[in-house]
Design goal:
With 280 residues, the chain is α+β, with helices and mostly antiparallel strands. The protein is built from 13 helices and 8 strands. It holds the Pfam family DUF4194.
Length: 280
């Protein structure tokens, strides 16, 4: 007859000696011993990490069939709608672009677009991929930039790259001096010439490439973002257009086809706002 009141047999030394491989393996699978108040903690249901799994949330609207989380969708929308996403200006958007960059690259590639991230500046933007296909369509519709916008952007990109400081300061007078080499015959009206430069400054402020100082309206900070957005290929193309534009003034001829704006458009007072210009 078995006596149920007998104490349980203590485990032998061989069963508890941590130097034995089989004991270490058994403890590894069981995990560390928990205090009594935490007993059963491992049996609680786990909460899925949505960011890690990239699982979609509840539909945002009727008919929403997106496979991406809300934050990835919003990051994608802003990449398509904005010239760039900046960690300085849009820290939340930048964090989402950085987190979901792999899936965003896939979605953008389906539209013949490339995602560019410049981590050291915390800047993200989208480029149109070029290749030969009669079926491909240009998706990006950027801000329209005109001849003087492009010239100023080109000079500012070179200016910030030559500067040693992260943020370079430039005055309104210095910006006007950057156009000293523009002697095109269509710009003999100096008042109109200055007006076009001022409009180019306004455009660079709109794009946040120039940021006006609070205590001095005639001094600007050149944002380092411009060195990220103005890629080497863009600078090369703008430099070519600029040289064509300058060269056309020596002979009085119209700028070559493909330049940033047409000479006939620049002859009129309101040409700056009427010509179509280029898209960035």
């Amino acid at each position: 007859m078995t006596n149920s009141s007998l104490p349980e047999t203590e485990p032998s030394l061989a069963e508890t000696d941590p130097s034995l491989p089989e004991v270490r393996a058994q403890r590894a699978t069981k995990g560390p011993d928990l205090p009594d108040e935490l007993a059963g903690f491992d049996d609680l249901p786990t909460v899925a990490n949505r960011a890690a799994s990239h699982a979609p949330s509840a539909p945002r609207f009727d008919g929403d069939v997106s496979e991406m989380p809300d934050r990835a969708c919003w990051a994608l929308q802003n990449l398509l709608a904005r010239r760039y996403v900046s960690g300085d200006r849009q820290p939340q958007l930048w964090s989402w672009v950085s987190e979901y960059q792999d899936v965003l690259r896939i979605r953008l590639s389906e539209l013949d677009l490339r995602l560019r991230l410049v981590d050291e500046l915390q800047v993200a933007f989208v480029e149109q991929a070029g290749y030969d296909s009669r079926w491909g369509r240009r998706i990006l519709k950027r801000e329209t930039v005109h001849t003087y916008d492009a010239i100023l952007a080109l000079h500012l990109a070179k200016y910030i790259r030559a500067a040693r400081d992260e943020d370079a300061l430039i005055t309104r007078e210095e910006i006007h001096e950057l156009f000293a080499g523009v002697t095109n015959t269509i710009d003999r009206d100096l008042a109109l010439f200055d007006k076009r430069i001022e409009r180019a400054i306004d455009k660079m402020e709109e794009l946040e490439f120039l940021r006006k100082q609070r205590d001095d309206a005639d001094t600007f900070t050149v944002s380092p973002v411009i060195s990220a957005v103005m890629t080497a290929s863009v600078i090369t193309d703008l430099q070519r257009q600029f040289e064509q534009f300058i060269g056309s003034g020596d002979t009085g001829e119209e700028p070559p086809e493909g330049a940033a704006a047409d000479a006939t458009d620049l002859d009129a007072e309101d040409a700056y706002s009427d010509d179509e210009g280029d898209d960035w």
